[in-house]
From TrEMBL:
Pfam families: Glyco_hydro_76. Keywords: Hydrolase, Signal. GO terms for molecular function: hydrolase activity. This is Glycosyl hydrolase. Residues 1-31 form the signal peptide. InterPro entries: 6-hairpin_glycosidase_sf, Glyco_hydro_76, MUG_Protein. It comes from the Bacteria.
Length: 614
């Protein structure tokens, strides 16, 4: 239907409602833009994972108007029953708490000889667009009416909008207060439960306080404007709002930000604090902020293929270490949405040919690591099978004809480097440990380990350079933390599987070198060469340090090393103390120096450090 027709019908609907006096509603907004989350708008209700009726039905001249909701899908549909030909039903969806709405979604009319009909399904919220929606069912049967809006309150477990601050488990002020005409406006948080409220002090009667809530870090807040708005009573000097949640797990919205705002009674202008997110724990705060960048519809962190595998691994590690399983759903989501074929530019700059495989051998291997982590966490055999498929692909590029062995970095066979061979060694060792009775992968792991130790990539200082020259010598290129970490992790795993002390000795030697060398550690903080001076790290390098921390943590756990554990704690303390803003965004430079870079890659990297310190 053309937009103009929608607007005409919307205007007629508003007029009809006003004349009928059935429900007072504001003017509808423009026609809907389709929303895609776990599924896209207009999904058939027969595919719903669940059917509930969270708001009361409405009766329209004997017809039953009903709103149906499937929480696992985060979608809704409407139905009308006991009707006659021509009766109609539709959904309204609002992004600003009912002030405006997208009208007539899925409008359907009862056909001849039928007594009822239903709409298709529509998303309630829009996690990709960082919008929290409300939805309701509406019908026309010689009169027009609508159900209540569904889910007007955000609930995060037992913590829901509208709770009394007197019930808070704590009271912290995450950002400085702001002042306005002598009034103090402050933001307060119950960090443990992720709820917040605002307070105005030193005021007078009629002064106002409220919260704004944003799902995109403070860029917009249409659904969360003026939450809990309240005034200082006559004779008073202070008041506070009720509490409001900052996560909406049902709507797949995480990392919500809030601020406190206030107005002095005699003036129109207001003042607000900075935006902030709660931090129930360091790792949980980092995970929430990371999830705010996950593209639910596509099942990855957009624009970086192998980095998404590492980010997924970080969240799996977080869940396993902390026992928090808020994000377990993204494991299957990522697998199902990405285990296919994509053209160049669809996921990677290279075509993805299925099974997470492309011409970049190391890119595929990172996904193998992710699916082994998923298998360990879920015990779902499909993840182990996928890791076997990926590692078998990587093995095709093991070549004894050049440098006596080693895996090529790409299909063109241009380079034998540390990252690809560190991944291959870790994967083969891990598969051997997880496949009962295996001999094939175990033998490949031993062969790869012996080659790695004799390849020359580990220099005389115990540091791993980037790779080999065409003449099969150490190329002396940059020592990156992830190459060091992969080798530490691979030899630690091989020691676990074989009991051979030489492998554990190698892991320790590599770890000690990393902790002692200024090429990787400065003033006790893990530092890449691109973390120094005016340098900046590229999108790949942003994630290197988290990989190192994952494998150092593995070694520390294997041998109970207090020194390694202290180093891990030092990284977490430095990140939290110097490299975090009020939205819990964590940057590239863990020492907090400038210039710094912050995005989901740096977030995932820092999450691994915070998880290791748990």
């Amino acid at each position: 239907m053309p937009v103009r027709t929608h607007r005409i019908l919307g205007g007629l609907l508003a007029l009809a409602l006003a004349l009928a006096g059935l429900v007072a509603l504001p003017t509808p907004s423009r026609a809907a833009t389709p929303v895609c989350a776990l599924a896209c708008d207009t999904l058939d209700p027969s595919k719903a994972a669940q059917e509930t009726f969270p708001v009361p039905d409405r009766n329209i001249n004997g017809r039953i108007l009903r709103l149906h909701v499937s929480d696992p899908d985060d979608m809704a549909w409407a139905s009308i029953d006991n009707g006659v030909t021509g009766d109609s039903v539709w959904l309204d969806r609002s992004w600003d708490r009912g002030a405006t709405w997208e009208p007539l979604l899925g409008k359907a009319s009862i056909p001849s000889t039928w007594t009822g009909t239903r709409t298709l399904m529509y998303n309630i919220t829009d996690p990709v667009g960082h919008r929290r929606g409300w939805i309701r069912a509406c019908g026309d049967a010689a009169a027009v009416t609508c159900t209540d809006w569904v889910y007007p309150k955000v609930c995060d477990g037992a913590s829901c909008d509208g709770a009394d601050p007197a019930t808070a488990a704590g009271d912290e002020r995450p950002v400085p207060a702001t002042t306005l005409f002598g009034r103090t406006i402050s933001l307060h948080m119950d960090q443990r439960n992720g709820t917040a409220w605002g307070v105005i002090e030193n005021g007078g009667a009629g002064d106002e306080i409220w919260l704004d809530r944003s799902w995109d870090g403070g860029a917009t807040w249409p659904e969360g404007s003026s939450l809990g708005r309240t005034s200082v009573p006559s004779g008073g000097t202070t008041t506070r709002t009720l509490m409001f949640a900052t996560r909406d797990p049902r709507g797949l919205l995480y990392g919500g930000a809030v601020r406190a705002c206030g107005r002095e009674a005699a003036h129109q202008e207001g003042s607000c604090t900075a935006w902030a997110r709660p931090a129930p724990t360091r790792a949980r705060a980092a995970a929430d902020a990371l999830m705010a960048s996950y593209h639910t519809n596509e099942g990855w962190w957009r624009s970086s293929w192998w980095n998404s595998a590492v980010a997924l691994t970080a969240l799996i590690d977080f869940a396993d270490r902390t026992g928090r399983h808020d994000y377990d759903w993204i494991v299957s989501r990522t697998f199902e949405q990405n285990n296919g074929v994509f053209p160049a530019g669809g996921r990677s700059s290279d075509p993805v040919e299925g099974h997470f495989i492309s011409r970049a051998i190391d890119d595929a291997a990172w996904w193998g690591v992710a699916w082994l982590a998923a298998y360990d966490s879920t015990h779902d055999r499909r993840y182990l099978d996928e890791a076997v498929t990926i590692t078998a692909y990587v093995h095709q590029y093991w070549d004894t004809g050049t440098c006596g062995g080693g895996v090529w970095w790409n299909r063109e066979r241009t380079y034998k480097n540390a990252v690809t061979n560190g991944l291959y060694l870790w994967l083969t060792t891990a598969l051997h440990q997880r496949i009962p009775g295996d001999t094939v992968w175990g033998e490949r792991a031993r062969t790869a380990a012996n080659w790695y130790l004799n390849s020359g990539m580990i220099n005389s200082a115990g540091l791993v350079n980037d790779g080999l020259t065409a003449g099969c010598a150490n190329n002396g290129q940059t020592v990156w933390s992830y190459n060091q970490g992969l080798a530490i992790g691979a030899f630690t795993q091989l020691w676990r599987g074989t009991g051979e002390s030489r492998y554990l000795d190698t892991a320790r030697r590599l770890a000690d070198a990393a902790l002692a060398s200024p090429q990787l550690t400065r003033d006790g903080v893990l530092t890449e060469s691109c973390d120094t001076g005016t340098a900046s790290c590229d999108d790949n390098q942003k994630q290197f340090k988290g990989i190192f921390m994952r494998h150092l943590d593995d070694l520390a756990n294997a041998i109970g090393s207090a020194a390694y554990r202290a180093y891990i704690t030092k990284q977490a303390d430095s990140i939290w103390g110097t490299d975090r803003d009020s939205l819990n965004r964590l940057g590239q430079r863990w020492a907090g120096t400038r210039p710094n870079q912050t995005d989901w890659r740096t977030q995932a990297s820092a999450l691994e450090a915070l998880t290791a310190a748990q």
